Amino acid sequence: MKTVDLLKPDAGLRVFISGAATGIGAAIAEAFLDTGAAVYVCDINPAAVDAIKKTHPRIHAGVADVGKREDVDAVMADAAEKLGGLDLLINNAGIAGPTGAVEDLDADAWDQTINTNLNSQFYFLKRAVPLLKNTSDNPSIITLSSVAGRLGYQFRTPYASTKWAIVGLMKSLAVELGPSNIRVNAILPGVVEGERMDGVIAARAKTLGLSFDEMREDYVKKISLRRLVTTQDVAAMALFLASPAARNISGQAISVDGNLEYL
C-alpha cells in the first residue's frame, strides 16, 4: 500500500459522533460521509437533527441530551443497531458554559458544564467501548478537548476545567485500552470561526469591558499564525487520526489552533 493511501480512513467505517448536527461535529460528520463511512450523529436540538438528515440522507441521527444517561443509552442502542457495530467513537458534544469571575459563577451553570462536557464522555464511553472491542477494523476513540485543555483560561474556569479533565481521561484510556488495540486521542481546537465562538468572544468582552472587535483582535494576536481555525481544519485532523496512517498514534493531545500561545 502506498503511503498516500494510508491517509484515507477505511471505506465503510462505522462512526458515532456526539453533539454533531451543527458546528465542528457536523463538519466531522460530513468529512466521514465523504469517505464512504456509515455515520450516526446525535444532538439535543431536534430541528438541527432534522436539518442534517435532510442535507445528508445517508446519515443516521437521533435526539439526545448528552447529560442524561438514559438519552445516551437510547441513541447508542439505536446506533449499534443501525450501524451494525462501531469502529470509531468521536466524543464531541459540549457547551461553552458561563463566563465570569469564579466567585460570581452560578453553581447550576457550573454543574451543567461539567455534566455536558465531561460526564457525557463517560456515558458514551461506557456504551461504546464494548462495541469497539468487538471490531478489528482499526478501532479508535477521538475526544474533543480544547486549547483550554492545555492553557489556563481567565474567567472561563468551568469550561477549562472540563477540557483539562478530558485530556486526563484520554491519556488514561489510551493505556487502559491499548492492549485491546483501541487507540485513544484528543483533538484540541483553538479559536474556531463560527457562531459559538462569537458568543464566547462577546461574553468575555462584556466581562473585561471591551468591544467585540477589540476582544476578537485580542484572540487573533495570541495566535502565531494570526488567523482563526475552521471546522474543516478540525475535521481533517479527525480523518487523519481515524486513518491507517495513525495506527501507532495513541494517547496524544493534538492541538489544531495555529499555535495559540496563551489565553
From TrEMBL:
The keyword Phosphoprotein does not apply. Belongs to the short-chain dehydrogenases/reductases (SDR) family. Pfam families: adh_short_C2. Keywords: Oxidoreductase. Transmembrane segments: none annotated. This is 3-ketoacyl-ACP reductase. SUPFAM superfamilies: NAD(P)-binding Rossmann-fold domains. InterPro entries: NAD(P)-bd_dom_sf (IPR036291), Sc_DH/Rdtase_CS (IPR020904), SDR_fam (IPR002347).
